[in-house]
# Entry
Amino acid sequence: MLDDLKRATAAAHEKAEEHNPARHIIDHSITENQYHKLLAHNYQVYYAVEKFADNHKSKLPEKVQNLLSFNKTDRLKNDLESLGQSVAEIPDIDLTIPATRASIIGALYVIEGSMMGGMLIARHLKQCDQLSQKESKFYGGKPQQHVQRWQQFKDSVVDENFTDQEVQEAIKSANIIFKLF
# Structure
């Protein structure tokens, strides 16, 4: 499943990276306004996926259920509030993916894997001269924990058996989430 997800979502992943304002953190050109919008948009997407997964957790394997949390959303909320924005002002987005084990895993694949890229972004954030907030709860934290969590997620997925149809469902779901970024 994981190899199929990586291969079949590579184009959507690359497109998401090309068009995501986080690229301006990497080249150190991000403005305060762009950063604020990036955090708000990320909050929308992460909250939608975390909420969807939590609402349908009974469909997930226990090992994946044990990884569910609003950790990413909570860190984004903290960063936004430190910039003076209440998350209550940010509209929710509804996910248009099936509430199946495979689709939820596909969506989680994107947000769990994104934390690997977040570690790279965190290193560059401190070098962004136009930002007053150079510390971030979301783009920071403890890299070792992110790596460990990603490995736990991958191990949980590898332990499961999926039909070809379920693999295709997960791929479709992951591609939808990548497009949200």
Observations:
- Residues 21 and 35 are 8 Å apart (CA to CA).
- The radius of gyration is 16 Å.
- The chain has one domain: 2-180.
- The chain has nine helices and no strands.
